[in-house]
Each structure stands twice: as structure tokens, then as C-alpha cells.
Amino acid sequence: MNTFRTETKVTATLEEAWTFLGDAKALTGMTVFPKVKTIGDTRTIAGNTIQLKVGLPPIFVEWESLIPIVGQHAFVDVGVNVPFPFVAWCHLHRVEQRPDGVYMIDELLYKSYFPKMIVDLLILKPMFDQRKRAILDYFS
User: Fold this and answer.
1) Least confident interval from 41-45, 64-68, 120-124, 133-137
2) Are 31 and 129 in contact (CB under 8 A)?
3) Which of 6, 85, 89, 134 is the right S-S partner for 79, CB 3.0 to 4.6 Å?
């Protein structure tokens, strides 16, 4: 399995950042690449299945993730049905209070048909860089 990690320092309280992560629509609404649409119940609660359509118009593919566990200021989504090039996906979302502020942290374990370097450079880094900008705008 490959790993990818990113974090964003936000100008928000721990509870404000955690509340933001409480609904998948928050991030999907601001993700431009790839474009993400939500279907059905989008609450990030244990046992819920988040259904997405991801892609570049007019081509969208289904992505389905289970939320198996929610902890204090953290939750995990595990890909049940993930699009190419992914084979497996496990994503820990967490919010952490540090002496210098509040951080939103994303830690991924994934398996792909493509090498890690290509996935990180062409898919994950652009996607999370764009999300980071959107999150910073949201909390500014």
C-alpha cells in the first residue's frame, strides 16, 4: 500500500474545523479537480456509506466509501467501490489542536494500478492542493 499525507493549518477552532468535516458535501462542494457530486446521505457518521460521482464533465464514475469508524475529531473512509486507477483506498481525516493552531490532516493508504509517483504527482497533490486553497478561503 502507498501513503500520502497532507495538512492544512486553519484559522478556526477545533470544533469549527470538526463541524466542517461532519458532512462530505463540505469538501465535495469545493473540489474542482476532479469534480465531485454527492448522492444521498453525506453525513460522516459511523456506518454511513458516502456515494460520490467523480470525474471531468461529461464523464463521471461512481465512488463509494464506507465510514467504519468515527473518533474524537477523526473519521476514516474506506473505498468500497473506487474508480480507476485506484484499487484500494483508506483515508483518515482528522483535526488536531497544536500550540500554534488547528490543523486539518489527511492521511491516505491506497493501492493503484499506476506507480505512487504518478498518482501523487498527477492526482493526489493537485486535488489536495486545490482543497487546501478552498479550505483556507472558507475559514478566512
Assistant:
1) 41-45
2) no
3) 89
User: 101: which residues sit within 8 A by CB, 6+ positions away?
Assistant: 9, 10, 11
Query: Alpha-carbon distance 136 to 131, whole Å?
Result: 8
CB atoms under 10 Å from CB of 58, counted, come to 5
Q: Determine the pLDDT at residue 120.
A: 98
Q: Indicate the Cα dihedral angle 66, 70, 74, 78, nearest 10°.
A: -20
- Of 114, 92, 100, give the one whose Cα is nearest residue 6: 92
DSSP state of 121: I
CB 52 within 8 A of CB 28: yes
Quote the CA–CA distance of 131 and 69 in Å, as a whole number: 23
